[in-house]
Amino acid sequence: MDSRSLHGAVAAVFFLLLSMALLAAAGAATVEHTFVVSQVRMTNLCKETLVTAVNGQLPGPAIEVTEGDSVAVQVINKSPYNITIHWHGVKQRLNCWADGVPMITQCPIQPGHNFTYRFNVVGQEDTLWWHAHVSCLRASVHGPLIIRPRQGASSYPFPKPHTEVPIIIGEWWETNLIQVARNLTHGFFGFNPSAATLNGKLGDLYNCSGAMQEGFMLDVERGKTYLLRFINAALMSEYYVKIAGHKFTWFPLMQTTSTHTPRTSSPSHPVRRWTPCWSPTRLHGDEDETDSDLELELDHDKYVSNTSEITVYEVEPASKKIEKISSLGQNVLFLGHNQSLCLHAEEYPQLKANHVYLTDDDFLYTTGFKNNRRDIGVFDLENNSSEEITTPQLWSNWPTPVWLIPNPRKMSLATHS
């Protein structure tokens, strides 16, 4: 092939690629949003709380795009705090300055200032979310980011859903989130959220004004398929989510829908999103029922990482009497199944079942405290005895606190979250 023919072939390939790019661009769009970050007063649990939120919403507005689109979000900061927004899961190829990491990819947006994020969503189909990336403000500054396939719902590896519903698992914090962050930097993990939320709704936890507060409700019709896009936006909690009497076909990420496993419930961890596909035809109930109301509730009993107090009771099987022995307060270590502790085995006695381990103060989750020395006490549930031991360092990492499994014939534990 002579040079003239070679140049002609190269030009043809170039124009072909250019034409393909122009065709792709013709189908793409620019999705624009304006986020106003401010403090608003919201009332939950019979109490008014000052909340930092976007556009006065909790959760914030949903960003819905199609693969190949461009996104432009103007953030106007009317809050008293510095702020950045991170687009969790978006592949910022050659565009790291839109990633929202403060003091690394950008300076924080100061109060009274604004900043516009611009990025493309190319080669992704996903259930994602956006959130604040300063302090602990992501607990209230967050929302869904949905990237749908360019080919439409027909490309899903399941029947075309009748409806797609984003469901944001969150937390309601009455404690100031900036104070929570400050305490975390000093190793104090004593703060817990006041309640869990689904799409910002707490449900009927308290009757404050004569009418119970609504939980999240989804109206469904038998025989139709619903795509539920779950996102756990909780700050530090994980939850199990299930719909009573139903089965999910769930997908860890829309981007990896090549394999899937039917499950009835699945764990949702902080910064975790997953997408189940569900059809009410799998309901076990009245076959004549044509439609139903679906109420989603978090299965708190499956995982109780936020227990704030543990009380020990003595159980007398013969008389069926339960007598309270003592309240051990917040400074308690729960030892249970399917968990491991980050301990140096040569430095510690073996942690035994049917024992409660408690510290001498509320700073249980502190590393490097008092020259790495901690005093802990042991409460034996078998004979109600106690002893005090001193350890060089209780934690080398912060594991998640879990349940203690007592001897049910002798003891019972009650918790107060």
Automatic annotation (TrEMBL):
Keyword DNA-binding among UniProt keywords: no
Keywords in alphabetical order: Signal
Source taxon at top rank: Eukaryota
One MF annotation (Gene Ontology) recorded for this entry: oxidoreductase activity
Pfam families: Beta-prop_KIB1-4, Cu-oxidase, Cu-oxidase_3
Family: Belongs to the multicopper oxidase family.
Full protein name: Laccase-15-like
Protein species of origin: Panicum miliaceum (Proso millet)
Organism lineage string: Eukaryota, Viridiplantae, Streptophyta, Embryophyta, Tracheophyta
